[in-house]
Amino acid sequence: MDCIFCKIVEGTLPSKKVYEDERVLAFHDIKPEAPVHLLIIPKKHIPTMNDAAAEDLPLIADMHRAAQQIAKEQGVAETGYRLINNCNPDSGQLVYHIHYHLLAGEKLGPLNGK
Fold it and tell me: Any signal peptide, and if so, which residues (predicted)?
């Protein structure tokens, strides 16, 4: 498998980690689109949100709990943050390993740009 996020989980590619536990990893995006732009991934490879099975729901919940903790640690929980999952090409998904983008650190505009 040639998944960049799996390589980050394995430690064969570097990342600037901000959170890690036995099931979830979070690190800085290499092309940030906000002052705070972090990626939250499961350590288990799941290509898209459509591929998440019922038994993966606790893992998805772990990702959400990690997002809450990370937002607090980054000092953006109270001011606000955006948590985004892109699923498949029309959404803009580039890496086929489910992940959330946590964006914050400034007032974010509408998603549609209007």
Answer: none
How does pLDDT run across 67-81, given as a tens digit for each residue? 999 999 999 999 999
Mean pLDDT along residues 30-34: 95
Active centre residues (catalytic): 99
Residue 23 domain boundaries: 4-104
Looking at the whole model, is its pTM more than 0.90?
yes
The enclosing domain of 86 has a CATH number of 3.30.428.10
**Contact present, 19 and 39 (Cβ < 8 Å):** no
Strand ranges across the sheet with 17-20:
17-20, 24-28, 36-42, 100-104, 81-84
